[in-house]
Amino acid sequence: MNASPTTTVKAVVTDFDVTTGLSNTKAPLQRRLSAMADMYADQEAAAAQVAQEDTLVYEFFDMGVPSTSGDVAYGTSITYPGKVGDEYHMTKGHFHEVLDTAEIYYCLSGRGYMLMENPEGDWQAAEFTPGQAVYVPRRYAHRSINVSPTEPLVTFFAFPGHAGHDYGTIETKGFRKLCVERDGKPAFVDNPRWQA
What is the fold, at CATH topology level, of the domain defined by 29-190? Predict the structure, then answer.
């Protein structure tokens, strides 16, 4: 009789509310406007808002799975409603350190977009509505954007455990496009601060 291989990774059980995305047992990683002010096109509006109140723009819960190629990392992300100037609240956005890895997001509640772009210059925007999943292809940087004036955008995400996060490229170059309010609706426009 052959011995079965030993399991070296314990099962992970986590809690999160399927409406709010919040966990009672995990601590969130939070991004306030002061940590993201450089990401917005209207720098004066960002500085004025930070001086008035350092708003929580988004938070996310990493559920603590090992960072190996055989594992699946997952968690929830909550982007709160609001704007900086006419630009909607958004996550920082990132590429994966292992560029040829994809990610999936499932919208639990709220309304918004997943903005994506690859190093070759292609960009896409996929709409988030409750019950819809957005597949982010490999090689695409991605950022969640909340376009609701009142409701948080809550998503569940999953990606290969070894993918890693490259925030630095986006912090340096920005995204090619911005999501702004035009005539009461979201619109995608060129980012005047984008650096090739």
Answer: Jelly Rolls (2.60.120)
The domain locations on the chain are 29-190
User: CA–CA separation, 55 vs 152, rounded Å?
Assistant: 14
Beta strands in 68-174 (DSSP E): 72-79, 83-84, 87-88, 103-109, 112-117, 123-128, 133-136, 141-146, 153-160
For residue 177, the number of C-alpha atoms closer than 13 Å in the C-beta half-sphere is 22
- Tens of pLDDT, residues 36-86: 999 999 999 999 999 999 999 999 998 777 788 888 999 999 999 999 999
Four-residue CA torsion sign, 119, 143, 94, 163: negative
Chain centroid to Cα 59, Å, comes to: 9
Burial class (CB in 10 A: 0-12, 13-18, 19+), 66: middle
Q: What is the pLDDT of residues 179-195, one digit of tens each?
A: 999 999 999 999 998 88
Q: Are 117 and 94 in contact (CB under 8 A)?
A: no
CB neighbours of residue 132 within 10 Å: 11
Q: What is the mean pLDDT of residues 162-167?
A: 94
**SS3 at position 35:** helix
